[in-house]
Amino acid sequence: MKSHQLLALIIMSALYSFSTLAEVRINGFASIVAGKDTSSKNFRNSPYNDEISFKPETKFALQVTADLSEGLSATAQIMARGSNDFDAKFEWAYLSYEINDHHTLRGGRLRLPFYKYSDYLDVGYAYPWVRPPRAMYSLLFSSYDGLSLISNYSVFDWDITSNLVYGTVEDTFFSTTSPTEGKLDDLYAINVQFSKDWFSAYVAYLGTDVLVPRADIETVAAITDAVAPGRGTDIRIDSDYGDFLGLGFTLDFENWLFNTEWSTVAIENSLSLDADQWYASLGYRFDNIMPYVSYQETENKRQTVSISNTPLPAQIHPGQPPLNTFLQGVFDGLKFEYIAYTIGVRYDFHPSAALKVEYNRYEDIIDAGSLGSISDPESSGNFSVAVDLVF
């Protein structure tokens, strides 16, 4: 975290030092969001409960970009989130160098190019919904420290943009349930976008070594080592290779707007979930009003875990079940699958601002609230009202 702050301070110093020589541009955006769940169950770690709250998703941001001439620029984005008591922090801080008309190299703290809206993840005005579909936009991190090479081409009237990424991530994972300091090493990614007229699409891939010593998983790994020495490594998320594959396309034809994205995530040699996520969304513009509907789903691909049938010692579990039975119960407690339906409307009441009203209905297919939980499907609804603006 200190390295992130140091990098941001260096870039801000550069912005200040060159302000008399450079063209400085200041932009900003904000979202004022009120939400309320229909139950108090905190479904899928929802930031809301059964009382109206403005704090969880309200945010304000400023972005400063200094053009230092000859292809060099510096950018810093400062964000204050209600979920963090509006403590301002640097989301982005990077230097950019335009090598030529087709290639731009960036270095610093950057946004990972997972999804269609990755670059605008916090800019509510950029997408039709109050928030991007949770099933799809659910990874525990969104930024990295490293390098990015962006390339732009035009081929047979198609605009093609690629983004090659290399770097690391150091962050707090599972912040709402089991806060754990984790790290992603040797992270590499590629995102390629294609667009022509009213059609656009992308494909993205990311691979990295994942280290997240989550306390409850470490406890299960210690039990595994006690029964099957050396096999705890098959439980821990300890520098295990993980990857992400995503793709999606958009049809923005006349008054119709259709979005769909799909992704799959997996971590090898660990007690982790391999999951698929996807959504589809359709909207229709009536001048400056757009009603929309969407459907989203997440599904676990991996269903079993097997290490050893050796019984657990009585001091660990009085019933002395086989290790595999115990681990399967733990794994089942981690699994989750749910679907969600969304209906909403967006009203662009100003050239730089939009009002959104939205209802989401979430339904569990299977439930997992904690390690070793039993099947207990639940459902919940969420009402949200937001005003998104850019300036």
From TrEMBL:
Tell me a GO cellular component: membrane
A GO molecular function held by the record: porin activity
Task: Outline the extent of the Porin domain.
Answer: 14-363
InterPro entries per the UniProt record, alphabetical: Gram_neg_porin_domain, Porin_dom_sf
Task: Could you list this entry's UniProt keywords, alphabetically sorted.
Answer: Signal
Question: According to the UniProt entry, where is the signal peptide?
Answer: 1-22
Q: Which Gene3D superfamilies match?
A: Porin
Q: Which Pfam families match?
A: Porin_4 (PF13609)
**Coiled coil stretches, renumbered:** none
Protein name per UniProt: Porin
**Species for this entry:** Pseudoalteromonas denitrificans DSM 6059
